[in-house]
Every structure is written in structure tokens, then in C-alpha cells.
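Got a spare moment? Tell me how you read both lines of this record:
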Amino acid sequence: MPYLSRIWLNPLRTTTQAYLRNPQTVHAATLGGFSAPGDHERVLWRLESAPDSRHRLQLIVLTRGRPSWEHIVEQAGWPDSDEPQILVRPYEPVLAAVSLGREFAFKLRANTVGTTKTPDKPSVTQKERLTHDRPRGVRVPHRTVSHQIEWLTNRLERWGFAAVTGENDLPAVHLTARDRVSFRKKSGDQVVLQTATFHGLVRVTDPQAARNALLEGVGPGKAYGMGLITLAPPRARSTT
């Protein structure tokens, strides 16, 4: 059974600061929530500011089994606080609510990249890949707001959603944060992510595809905090 968790993090703790510098440390911490994580335990997560306070962060994690997050609170939260630091809820009610035509507010942090055989400034590695007899193309990041919005809207249908139109019949989808994340793996290889955080309104067009997108995540970089779609009831629309 899948579970969705929320863990409060203290931004002044050394471990939390390490989480912010290198997404690999967060991924390792989430896998540490299971006594024997295996290939079946695919974890999606997103680290972000808490909506109710500037003084704490929240780690949202979607897991296939019930996790234990005490080690994260001990290392990166407020272990002695009287306030509950961990919230773990079954995810089945969310999946059951995904029905044809239903509308949701959504949030997604994604690694917005596309594939091309003609990059403007190919790297040495990309040049090598493109010289193969049957080149498959190379990944290139979308850096402008318009391209990142287009990246999202072009993929919503395959994920089982459609953007709800707002004023002037434009999609009610907004890009609220953009970032370039760079860090090194233990091997020394550098990883660069071109990230975009989206909010908006979507309508379910294919419930099964939508559930798959929620459970499996979307786009590349899932181990680094990308691709987790979260849903919430939409706010009432104004009729004036």
C-alpha cells in the first residue's frame, strides 16, 4: 500500500543544510526509512518551504510501503518538540478520488529537459553520442519560462490530465520557481538539473494514466527530488 508522508525539517541543522546542497543525501535518507529497501521500493520526494512558516522546511515523500522517518527527525528536525514532526497517511484515498473529469490543484517540481539531435552547443559527450550510426538524440534543458511551460503542457495528456483554462482561455498553469541545481555524485561525476516548479489546475482525462503518473512520477531526475505530482482540492472559482 502506498503512503504519503510529510516531515518537518529544521533549516539550521547541519544535515538539513546538506540536504539542500546535495539531493543525493535526501534520496539516501528516504531509502533509510525501510529496513530492507529493494527494487520494489521506489521513492518519490520533494523538499520545499513549509506553506505555513518561513522557519521550517517540509519533506514530502511518496512510498510503496509504510516508512519510518524517526532517523530524519533525529538528524534534521526537532526531535524534542512537543509538536508532531511526522505525518504519514495512506495514499489510496487520493488514488480513489482520481476520476474522469474531476479537477484538482496540483504542484510539481520537474527537471525540464527535452531530446534533440541538433543541440546548439553540444558537449564532448553529446558529440560522441551523435556520431553513432543511429543517434537517438541527447538531452538538453529548457531554460526559458515559455519553453518550460510548454514542456509541461505537452506532457499533461500522456499523464492523464488536461490543463483547466482560466482567463482568456489560457491554461491555468503557472511556473512559480526556477532553479539550476548542480552537485557531484560520489563517483565525482557532476549532475546538473534545470528545475521548474509548477502550480495550477488540471482535469483528469484518463484516470488510469493519472494514477500511474502519481505513483511512478514524471520526467527525469526522480532520485533527486523531481517528478512528484501532488494533488489537492481546487479553490472555489469566483463567479463575479
In short: The two ends are 43 Å apart (CA to CA). The CA atoms of residues 48 and 58 lie 6 Å apart. The first strand starts at residue 3 and ends at 9.
